[in-house]
Design brief:
Blueprint: E1 2-8, H1 14-25, E2 36-44, E3 47-55, E4 61-68, H2 71-99, E5 130-131, H3 133-143, E6 147-152, E7 158-163, E8 169-172
Parallel strand pairs: 1-2, 5-6
Antiparallel strand pairs: 2-3, 3-4, 6-7, 7-8
Helix pairs in contact: 1-2
């Protein structure tokens, strides 16, 4: 596994790097050497944040984020989150193969059916009317969704507003 470790507002010490490498080595049994992982450490006030993103074969992405008062505890908890996601994904693939009469995946094997797992089960069509981002947020709140697609009245482009984990809102604008 190719591991990239970076820090924001923190110097990543050799001891911290070794701890991260040791903990990520635990995940090596699931993958071959082509898997990449990025770990970003940051400190904001008293919170030690760890974000881990793994780029798996077949375009699959596994991501974990954790914030605690101790950097080592954050690393350990993020590794546990990522490992649970990997096991869940492998279980889903194995179940699908069993139902279709295929053989079970060996430990560490990747499936080529990863792209077939999610399925579009519903399609909605609606008119997109021009509005400001503030109006779009209000509309999103009224319908009780976490995102809302609208045509920006100022730019005439299709935009998306969404609710962030911190309770604020984000806006996605296309870039041509």
């Amino acid at each position: 596994m190719k591991l990239t470790i970076s820090g924001k507002n923190i110097d990543v010490t050799n001891a911290l790097k070794e701890h991260i490498q040791r903990r990520f080595a635990k995940l090596d049994k699931h993958f071959d050497d082509t898997v990449e992982a990025q770990v970003t450490l940051s400190v904001i006030k008293d919170n030690h944040n760890v974000e881990a993103t793994m780029f798996l074969n077949g375009g699959m992405l596994v991501r974990g984020e954790q914030s605690t008062g101790d950097m080592y505890a954050s690393v350990d908890q993020v590794i546990d989150k990522v490992e649970r996601q990997i096991k869940k994904h492998k279980t889903k693939i194995n179940r699908k193969l069993r139902q279709s009469g295929g053989s079970l995946l060996k430990e560490g094997a990747e499936s080529t059916e990863e792209g077939k797992d999610p399925e579009i089960v519903k399609t909605k069509r609606f008119a997109i009317k021009p509005m400001t981002p503030e109006e779009a947020v209000l509309q999103m709140e009224l319908i009780g969704h976490d995102f809302f697609v609208f045509r920006n009245a100022e730019t005439e482009e299709v935009n998306v507003v969404y609710r962030r984990k911190d309770g604020n809102y984000g806006q996605i604008e296309p870039e041509v």
